[in-house]
Design goal:
2 domains, 6 helices, alpha+beta, elongated
């Protein structure tokens, strides 16, 4: 009987050991599966990043910015020449220069070119326009002459609105450039804005005087041959 008890006890111990071994092997395979899944995810992520980076590098190589300096000089260069002309002729009190992207604005106060409610150039206007005209003839860019007024309604039989007055003032300047200096008519135009594009609010006499003006705009992104 003792012999049989000993055999039964050994069998029970063997079953326990076998069960523990199977549990450990199962745990081992589960861990292997988890690690493999994590590595696969990492590899997929890495692969995705490599593809994305490679595509980005390709785009960077193929997409090239359009060179703008090859089609026009810098606005600063033209500005410097204009300022030199204005200072040489002592006109800095009468002409403002504003440089914007692709545009240089020459701003003439109305009294230096025109009398009130008139679109006829004054007798001494040449000293303001002639130095600028010489420079404008040398450059190949489009030129737009703009006329502007304040918001005080005009009382004139010749001009029924500020809009009309501002246009004819701009046209007078254009016509002078074309007739005397033979500026290419293809590259110069005139437009009148009346009171609708003021530099300052029309809340004071000083602001109104600065809104009454002629602007000569040089469009450096537009070449006219």
């Amino acid at each position: 009987m003792a012999r049989k008890k000993s055999d039964s006890g050994d069998k029970d111990i063997g079953d326990v050991i076998f069960g523990d071994l199977m549990s450990q092997m199962l745990t081992f395979f589960i861990l292997l599966y988890i690690f493999a899944s994590q590595n696969t995810a990492k590899e997929s992520t890495n692969l995705f990043m490599e593809i994305r980076n490679g595509f980005t590098k390709t785009l960077k190589k193929e997409v090239k910015p359009v060179p703008t300096e090859t089609v026009k000089p810098k606005e600063k260069e033209i500005e410097s020449k204009l300022r030199a002309i204005i200072y040489d002729k002592n006109l800095e009190k009468y002409i403002d220069i504003i440089v914007e992207e692709n545009k240089i604005r020459l701003i003439f106060a109305q009294p230096v070119l025109f009398d009130s409610a008139s679109a006829t150039l004054k007798k001494d206007f040449e000293k303001f326009l002639d130095p600028i005209a010489i420079m404008l003839k040398e450059i190949p860019y489009e030129i737009v002459v703009e006329g502007h007024t304040d918001n005080v309604p005009i009382k004139s039989a010749k001009f029924h609105s500020n809009w009309v007055l501002s246009f004819f003032r701009a046209y007078s300047v254009l016509n002078y450039f074309v007739q005397k200096y033979e500026l290419n008519p293809k590259k110069i135009s005139a437009i009148g804005y009346g009171e609708y594009r003021p530099r300052f609010s029309n809340t004071s006499a000083e602001n109104k005087s600065m809104n009454r003006r002629i602007e000569i705009n040089i469009l450096t992104n537009s070449i006219i041959k």
